[in-house]
Amino acid sequence: MAHRELLARHRSVMPNWLALYYEQPIEIASAHGRRVTDREGRTYLDFFAGILTNAIGYDVAEISDAIRSQLDTGVLHSSTLYLIKSQVELAEKIAQLSGIPDAKVFFTNSGTEANETALMLATQYRRSEQVLALRNSYHGRAFATVAITGIRGWSASALSPIKVSWVHGGYRYRSPFRELSDADYIKACVADLREVIETTTAGDVACMIVEPIQGVGGFTTPPDGLFGEFKKVLDEYGILLVSDEVQTGWGRTGEHFWGIQAHDVVPDAITFAKGLGNGLAIGGVVARANLTDCLRANSISTFGGNPLATTGALAALNYLLEHDLQANAGRLGSRLLDGLRAVAAAQPVVGDVRGKGLMIALELVGPDGEPNPAAAVALLEETRDRGLLVGKGGLYGNVIRLAPPMTLTQAEAEEALEILTQSIEAVAKEGQ
Ligand code: PLP
Predict the structure, then answer these.
(1) Whole-angstrom distance, CA of residue 368 vs CA of residue 354
(2) Per the similarity annotation, which family is this (predicted)?
(3) Distance between CA atoms of 328 and 408, rounded to whole angstroms?
(4) Distance between CA 340 and CA 87 in Å, rounded?
(5) Is 216 in the pocket of ligand 1 (CB under 6 A)?
(6) Measuring CA to CA, which residue among 201, 269, 188 is closest to residue 229?
(7) Pocket test for ligand 1, best of 54, 221, 247 (most atoms within 8 A of CB)
(8) Contact 388, 336 (CB under 8 A)
């Protein structure tokens, strides 16, 4: 009853577009490891890690203790006008991990603000309001970021304070170049990039922003090397490359610490958020010093880089590095991909299995390969009934996304695989 009443109050006080998952939404009451427990006492294996936010998992002693010791100082927030040791240490670590020479870091509270900052820096630096983005992208929900988002359901380009052109490359499964080999796909996308620059801009473009694997867009996974080839074209025009690593950072893709590294290129700026705080609100941008320092006006974020968030994030980042969670993501991600590909081979409702590391998607399709969002909703409910939480997404809402905490164990991976297999079979049967 209390649960139903809370749901009614949520619906009356929150905007309509703030949709909840599940016909009977969940209220999480406690969490530990990779599992969350709802108010009714049901426990679920969380295969979406919050929203890729709990990269390490829940109730991790090393992180909780660090946060608690910061709370014990009495300093929840001290103005960013003063020195904050954890902020400086975290910035140093991220600058070093970025691989960007002479890098500086600016902290924000979210991925949206991180991308807004990167766009502000690039447009100021290049004295141009023209930006290139990938079709099917998601970069956030403030004025500039919502304008460059290339997914109809999340976009509002009429509000754009900047000029945007969109390029092929991200969403291969439904692209006109889908049937091509990796090498030819890259060539076709590079030709498209060049044509977009030549035909829709005056050439004075500020930057191109890419998600190495599109997150909200359905974990679309372009062939390795694509963005390195893009960079060669961008360099001809002096266009900066921004890698939005809000979902792909911190080793989640298994092979590399940043998703963009699979493309053999160092971007001019990296934006980050989500997993860094392991649930605390923190984001930021790391970029070459001549880019960060190009702003003449003052700029500040009141809460960005506050002591509580940077203390927690530093503990989370240290944990992630000390336990080599990137390697774990690679190993268990391969196991999950293999297992799911075997299931998909027997179930035509799964049109595509893709991803890297612990970022794996199932694209659900109808008999003619058309997007099947109803099957995605059904799979969400089926997995929940069996004790597994997963994510949904994709341009057509027909993609199931799997992104568990990177501390996942082999036994938990097998448990999820079993639940997914049973759930896919149930959805396939329902659809017959
Ligand atoms: N960029 C990417 C790739 C994202 O996936 C998201 C959020 O899902 C954002 C930016 C926006 O981040 P936030 O919701 O923290 O503002």
Answers:
(1) 19
(2) Belongs to the class-III pyridoxal-phosphate-dependent aminotransferase family.
(3) 8
(4) 41
(5) yes
(6) 188
(7) 247
(8) no
Ligand 1 centre to CA of 92 (Å) is: 23
Q: Give the nearest ligand 1 atom to 273 CA.
A: 15
Name 84's Cβ contacts closer than 8 Å, sequence gap at least 6.
78, 305, 306, 307, 310
> Is there a contact between 247 and 401 (Cβ–Cβ < 8 Å)?
no
Which letter does DSSP use for residue 80 in this model? T
Closest CA to 273 of 298, 301, 297, 296: 301
In 79-110, alpha helices (H): 85-98
Please indicate whether residue 115, judged by its CB atom, sits closer than 6 Å to ligand 1: yes
**Structure confidence by residue, pLDDT tens digits, 287-338:** 999 999 998 888 888 999 999 999 999 999 999 999 999 999 999 999 999 9
Q: What are phi and psi of 238, to 5 degrees?
A: 75, 20
The confidence score (pLDDT) of residue 178 equals: 93
Confidence grade of residue 152 (pLDDT, cut at 50, 70, 90): confident
Which one, of 390, 292, 343, lies nearest residue 48 by Cα? 390
Does the beta carbon of 281 lie inside 6 Å of ligand 1?
A: no
56 neighbors 319 (Cβ within 8 angstroms): yes
Residue nearest to atom 13 of ligand 1 (CA): 111
Taking a C-beta distance cutoff of 8 angstroms, is the pair 417, 173 a contact? no
Q: Whose C-alpha lies nearest to ligand 1, atom 10?
A: 139
Handedness of CA 90, 310, 284, 305 (dihedral sign): negative
Whose CA is closest to atom 1 on ligand 1? 139
Coil, strand or helix at 184: helix
- Tell me the CA–centroid distance for residue 52 and ligand 1, in Å: 10
DSSP classification of residue 33? B
ipTM of the complex: 0.99
Distance 183 CA to ligand 1 centre (A): 30
Name the helix (H) or strand (E) containing 288. Answer: strand 283-288
Q: Are strands 43-46 and 35-38 parallel, antiparallel or unpaired?
A: antiparallel
Mean pLDDT of the chain: 95
Band of the pLDDT at 154, cuts 50, 70, 90? Answer: confident
Pocket of ligand 1 contains residue 359 by CB under 6 Å: no
- Residue 217 near residue 151 (C-beta atoms within 8 A): yes
